[in-house]
Amino acid sequence: MDRNTSTQTGIKWQYIIAKTEYQSTQWLLTMARRICLLNSFTNLKHNIDNISNTGASSPAEAQICKV
């Protein structure tokens, strides 16, 4: 294997590794977004529950009532 072929192979592997890292990062970001979205819905549900339980007219009021 001459030096040129070796360099091409090295570059190809660097590309594959970079692509894999990029895809992994994209996957992690997607998961993080889904978790944030899920937390938002969970918080919203808690706020609605708090309002229902306390008779408060807003989430902030429900927080005050809860404390």
Please tag this protein with its features.
2 helices; 67 residues; mainly alpha
Record the SSE blueprint.
Layout: H1 3-54, H2 59-66
Explain what you see.
With 67 residues, the chain is an all-alpha fold. The chain has one domain (3-66). The protein is 90% helix and 0% strand. It contains two helices and no strands. It has helices at residues 3-54, 59-66. The longest helix has 52 residues, at 3-54. It is rod-shaped. The model has no long low-confidence stretch (mean pLDDT 76).
In short:
The protein is an all-alpha fold and 67 residues long. The chain has helices spanning 3-54, 59-66.
Order of helices and strands: HH
State Rg.
25 Å
What spatial form do the alpha-carbon principal axes imply? rod-shaped
Number of domains: 1
- Tell me the distance between the termini: 73 Å
Structural class: mainly alpha
Question: From the structure provided, what is the oligomeric state, counting identical versus distinct chains?
Answer: single chain
Proportion of strand residues? under 5%
Number of strands: 0
Largest sheet: none
Low-confidence stretches: none
Helix fraction bin: over 70%
What is the count of DSSP helices, taking H or I runs of 4+ residues? 2
Tell me, rounded to a whole number, the average pLDDT.
Answer: 76
